[in-house]
Amino acid sequence: MSEITALIGGTGIYAPGNIKEGRVVRRETVSTPYGDVTVERTDDLIFLNRHAPNHSVPPHKVNYRANIKALHMLGVRRICATFAVGSINGDFELAVPVILSDFIDYSSGREHSFFDKIEASKGHVDMSVPFCPVLSGALEREAKARNLKVRRGGVYASTNGPRFESPAEIKAYRKMGADVVGMTLCPELPLALELGMSYAGLAFSINWGAGMTPNIELVHEGVDIIKDKMLHVMMAALANTKDADCTPASIL
Ligand code: HPA
């Protein structure tokens, strides 16, 4: 039996129309201790719409624990996730996907851990290597194979939303080392690592950060073209790796 893997689609990436490729896609609802989650799936690939079917949940209200727990309960150990972001580093072109390498968490007030009751002092997940290098390498290879220009390595500033940032916030995040800004990486990534899963992130910029242009202007040109390719790159990266290739973060 093949391993079960997952794609998490963020804003603008809505499967399964695009991922069907002749395979049967069905809906399944998983009941977790944190709430019910509906996914779309084939036998070995789960598609989770982060913002729920119909994009009805804003970033600060996403039930991240239910989403990640549901994937874990379905047997998923490897995840590729997409994010629509703003670029805050002038070198990070719009509509060129970034394979994320690190993050800074500026979010607050979210349920951000499964370790509410620490047993035997185990409850601190190691964030030294937050994004799986094996999955990230596979994303880079599969992008090359499909002529999709990507950038390897970028730091994601994870904000609370739903508002955009102020110009001073963007300047501060840039000074602190961030390249792109978005509202959903945290706590999704740390939660996945808490459950021993491996996770890679592909972010695509749809605007320059606040203050870098007179107003936030969302671009569509170029972005619509890469979305389908991104889905295929992520599916191939998952298909051409194995759970045993990846080293989950340790819990200390
Ligand atoms: N800031 C935060 N989240 C975003 C942005 C942004 O500029 N663009 C897309 N998601």
General description of the model:
Helices cover 23% and strands 24% of the residues. It is of the alpha/beta class. It has one domain (4-245): Nucleoside phosphorylase domain (Rossmann fold), CATH 3.40.50.1580. Strands 1, 2, 3, 4, 5, 6, 7, 8, 9, 10 and 11 form an eleven-stranded mixed beta sheet that branches. Helix 1 (64-73) packs parallel to helix 4 (185-194) and helix 2 packs across helix 5 (223-239). The structure holds hypoxanthine (HPA). Hypoxanthine (HPA) is lined by residues 84-86, 159, 164-165, 181-183, 206-207, 209.
Q: How would you summarize this macromolecular structure in one to three sentences?
A:
By secondary structure, the protein is α/β, with parallel strands linked by helices.
Rg, alpha carbons? 17 Å
Say what the CATH topology is: Rossmann fold
By CATH, the superfamily comes out as Nucleoside phosphorylase domain
* CATH class group: Alpha Beta
Could you give the order of the helices and strands? EEEEHEEEHEEHEHEH
Shape: globular
List keywords for this structure.
single chain; 252 residues; alpha/beta; Rossmann fold; 11-stranded mixed beta sheet; 11 strands; binds hypoxanthine
Q: Secondary-structure map with pairings?
A:
Elements: E1 5-9, E2 26-32, E3 35-41, E4 45-49, H1 64-73, E5 78-87, E6 98-99, E7 102-105, H2 133-145, E8 151-152, E9 155-158, H3 167-175, E10 180-182, H4 185-194, E11 198-208, H5 223-239
Parallel strand pairs: 1-4, 1-5, 5-11, 6-8, 7-9, 9-10
Antiparallel strand pairs: 2-3, 3-4, 5-10, 6-11
The chain binds hypoxanthine (HPA).
